[in-house]
Every structure is written in C-alpha cells, then in structure tokens.
Amino acid sequence: MLSACEEATLEYEAIMKPNGDIAKYSELSAGTSTIFLTSSKAYDMPAPWVANSLSIRFNNGDILYDNPFTEESGLGPVYAGYSCGSCHKNAGRTPSTIYSQYGSGNYGFSSMLVYIVRKNGGFFRDYGRVLHDQTIYGSKAEGKLKVTITEEEYSFPDGEKYSLRRPHFSISEWYSDSISPDDLYISARIPLRHVGMGQIMSISNDELLRLEKESNYPEYGISGRLNYIVERGVKQIGVSGNKAQHADLTVELGFSSDMGITNSRYPEEVCGGQAQHPDFFDGLEITTEEMEDVDLYMQALGVPARRYVDNEIVKKGEAAFYASKCHLCHIPTLHTRPAGSVLLNGTSLPWLGGQTIHPYSDFLLHDMGPGLDDHIQSGLAYGAEWRTTPLWGIGLQETVNGHTQFLHDGRARNLKEAILWHGGEGAVSREIFKNLPKEDRDALIVFLETL
Ligand code: HEC
Ligand code: HEC
To answer: How confident is the model at residue 20 (pLDDT cuts 50, 70, 90)?
Structure first.
C-alpha cells in the first residue's frame, strides 16, 4: 500500500516524464508541488497532486478568496480590501496605491495594510491596530494614508549611479479623535506573494529551531532569531507575515480585520467606534468549513519551478549570490516535516510532507538597520527586525502582478534597489554586492529573476 505522498510522487513523475521534460533537481522549487507555468497564473495554479474532492474544495476556496464582498454580503462597515484576491491578485501582490496615488486609494481600494500604534506600543481606542481606510456607503473611513517621497542619490564604487526613494507616512481625515503625529507610528505594508504557503506551514519546528541555532555569523554581523507569538493562550513559532508575526495563514483574521467579515474566531464587527453603522448582515458572515477551503486553496497552490538554471549568466549570478552571502539568510534549501500540514479545521495534507524545498529564506527575524525600521513591535520582533522574505517565485512577480515593487512597503522599484536597502545584519551583503564588478551585479539580478 503506497502512502498518499508516494502516490503523488509517482503520479508527478508520470506527468513529467512523457515529454522528456525531466526537471533537474535544482529547478524543483517545492518537490511534488512544483509547477512549470510561467504566465500571469504562475502563482495561482493547484499543485499537481490536487485531484478529485481536493480539487472541488480547492476551486471553492479559490472562489471565496476572489469573491468580492459587498455591503449585502457583509463587507465592512469599514475595511481595507473587499476580497483576499483584491490585495493578492493572482495570489500575488496587487500594485499598491502607495506610490500611484501617494497613499490611500480614492476609489474604494488601496491594496495595502496600514498598521498604527501609539509610541508606547498601545492601541488607539477607536481604531485598533489596522487603519481601515475604506468604507461602505454611510460610514466614514477611519482615516487616509498620505505619502511623501524623498529621492536619495548614490553611486556604486565603480561610478554607476542609483537612487533610492524613501517614503514618509502620515494620516489625515481621522474619523474620530485626531491622533497627534507625536504619538503615532505608522507602518504601511504591501501584500506578500502566496508562493509556497503550504510548504511554509509544513516546515517542522525542529528545522526552524536548527536554523535559529545555525544563524550565527559574527564575521558578517548576522544572527537571526525566531519570532514567538501567543494566540488563544498557546505560544507558537511565527512563520508568516513580514515580521513572522503569525503562526498560521491568517484566514480568519484576514476575513475579519481586512474585510469586516465576521466568523467563528472573530465574531465581532471591526467597526471600532462605528458600532452605530453596522453592515446589513446579521450573524457570522462565513463558515469555518468555507474558511478551511480558503486555507486549502492557499496551501495547495503549486510553486513555480526555477527557469534557465543552466544558462551561463544565471550561473554567474548564482555564484555572485553566494559570494555576497545572501544565502546566509535567504537559505536555498529546507525540508518539510514527514506528515505535511494540517488545515485550520483539522484536514491534513500529507502531500506536503517529506519534500525538499527551495524557499530562499530562513524564516528568521533579522535587524535590517534604521532605514527599514518602522518602530512597530510584533511578537518579539522590534521595528527594525523583519522576516527574511522567501524569494521563490520572485522573478515572476512582474508577469503575475505587472510591477516590480519590493520590500515590506514596496519602496524598492526593482530588485537592485531591494538589495541596496539592506542595512543592519544585511549591510555586509549589500557592501559586497556594491563592490562586485557591474557584470556580476547584473548577473545576480538575472539569477533572482529565474527564481
Ligand atoms: C487590504 C489588503 C489585504 C487583504 C484584503 C488581504 N490581505 Fe493578506 N496580506 C496583505 C498584506 C499587506 C500582507 C503583509 C502583512 C504583514 O506582514 O504585515 C498580507 C499577508 C498575508 C499572508 C502572509 C503571507 C506570507 O508569505 O507570510 C497571508 C497568508 C495572507 N495575507 C492571506 C490573506 C487571506 C486569506 C485574505 C482573505 C481572507 C487576505 N490575506 C486578505 C494584504 C491583504
Ligand atoms: C541578514 C539577512 C539577509 C541577508 C544577508 C540578505 N537579505 Fe535579503 N532580505 C532580508 C530581509 C529580512 C528582507 C525583508 C526586508 C523588508 O521587507 O523590509 C529581505 C528582502 C529581500 C528582497 C525583497 C523581497 C521582496 O519580495 O520584497 C530581495 C530581492 C532580497 N532580500 C535579496 C537579497 C540579496 C540578493 C541578498 C544578497 C546580496 C540579500 N537579500 C541578503 C534578509 C537578508
């Protein structure tokens, strides 16, 4: 009797072999979950093992994920996005209005999350932790984000010029008591790509604890640490989110906090002081089974294979990636635990188990220096600490979402600027990169584009 996993492996090999298209080891980003699509749907296709009843649930999850909620179906009264897919278009990063409209979008949409915190770390009574900058008719948005940019000019040691845009955030049009900027920290975040969600949920705690222990390179100023959060009384290792501030894929929280869709875990409307304007929908607005389908959808997404692994320039760029010590944080190879993952309502996905994966992350927090400090603490993470962003699929972001904004707030306009913003524990890497011959720097970028 074969295990579900072994069956999936055999099936997978059967799919791959007839074309003579036997993928090389390093191309298989996520073992049997790897897919070979390079179109705008590259983040948004099921893994090859999704069949039969799983397939039905996957499609249902996909529909709920993309379903635009309206006032009639429970949206709001205040919200940040009207569906998961509104911010994560094609399971990626919808371009944010931060840079196209310099803040909150004016047309019921922004594609970002704006966290607001008092300088002592506390919540604002009428607002909570997320600024809901959109609203259904008849209510008032909590406030609007405004952004100003300063452009800073620099050059590489060899004379090539570059410039970095530094965003400055403020909030206007507060719906209730105005909050003084003197008592306010603002962190704007663009959405994260959904590449490898199931794999991330399947990494074992032992592997994460090992990564934390090994992440200690005093010669390069690098030492990562795990984030821990307490949810429902249980202390857990955080893996998802820009500060590894969540232990799961935040389906319940996303419906509640981002869209105002009440559910079994968060039954109250997120209307802060606006309880006088409830939406038109009584009772829970989505069921636990439906939310598990959304969880399943995300965890069963395929991970795009690497491309052009044998190209000479790509190989040169890969060597430059290692020479620049990028791999000490963006760790190329990890493993999932044998049992795979368990969804929020108890369904297990054994197909995710026992796989060699290439996320290019250690899922640890690193101090990235004052330039990226948002002064907001999440779990153990301080303002300057961020989770190493997994780089798998990054080269397809432009195809999938039509833009090349990177880093937590999208300030980097391309991959090169993303590297040049690395400070703190990433400073040595950045300096090595800056001192590479231009040809090698360019090759490193080409290598990233194959991930
Ligand atoms: C208003 C925009 C918005 C909406 C709506 C939204 N998200 Fe997100 N999502 C984000 C942003 C921004 C982040 C990064 C947040 C952070 O780390 O602070 C994120 C992060 C995530 C992550 C973490 C990914 C990772 O790599 O660690 C998951 C999972 C996720 N969202 C799932 C969902 C689901 C499921 C829904 C619908 C229930 C949803 N999101 C709705 C903006 C949104
Ligand atoms: C000390 C650990 C560390 C090192 C070394 C490091 N990075 Fe990062 N990297 C991070 C962290 C943490 C982030 C997230 C920062 C943020 O969003 O503000 C990040 C973000 C990125 C991003 C943006 C990803 C996205 O989707 O927004 C890219 C690209 C990147 N790194 C590439 C590199 C390259 C190339 C190198 C080597 C030159 C490198 N990094 C070295 C930790 C590191």
So the answer is: very low
Place of tokens 């409307």: 269
Most ligand 1 atoms within 8 A of CB, residue of 192, 197, 266 to mutate: 192
Closest residue by CA, ligand 1 atom 9: 191
Give me 148's structure tokens.
Answer: 């100003």
* Ligand 2 atom closest to 424 (CA): 1
Query: What are the extents of the domains in the chain?
Result: 4-449
3-state secondary structure of 274: coil
Give the span between the Cα atoms of 70 and 76, in whole angstroms.
8
38-70 confidence digits (pLDDT tens):
999 999 999 999 999 999 999 999 999 998 877
One-letter amino acid of 209: L
Range 406-421 burial, b when 16+ CB lie within 10 A, else e? bbbbbbbbebbbbbbb
Q: Is the pTM of this model over 0.85?
A: yes
Contact call for residues 131 and 142 (beta carbons, < 8 A): yes
CA distance 225 to 132: 31
Tokens representing 8 are 């999936």
Half-sphere exposure of 267 (CA within 13 A, CB side): 4
Distance of CA 409 from the midpoint of ligand 1 (Å): 13
Task: Encode pLDDT of 27-43 as tens digits.
Answer: 899 999 999 999 999 99
Ligand 1 atom at minimum distance from 259 CA: 5
Among 196-205, 248-257, 340-349, 355-364, the minimum mean pLDDT is found in 248-257
Query: Which residue matches tokens 């190879």?
Result: 333
Contact between 372 and 344 (Cβ < 8 Å): no
- Split at pLDDT 50, 70, 90, the class of 282 is low
Percentage with pLDDT > 70 across the chain: 90
Q: Please give all residues whose beta carbon lies within 6 A of any atom in ligand 2, as ranges.
A: 222, 242, 321, 324-326, 328-330, 366, 368, 372, 386, 388-389, 394, 406-408, 415, 418-419, 422, 425-426, 429, 433, 448
Do 399 and 39 meet the contact criterion of CB atoms below 8 Å apart? yes
| Structure-token pair, residue 384 | 């300057």
226 with 237: CB under 8 angstroms? Answer: yes
Q: Where are the alpha helices (DSSP H) in 166-278?
A: 197-200, 205-214, 251-253, 259
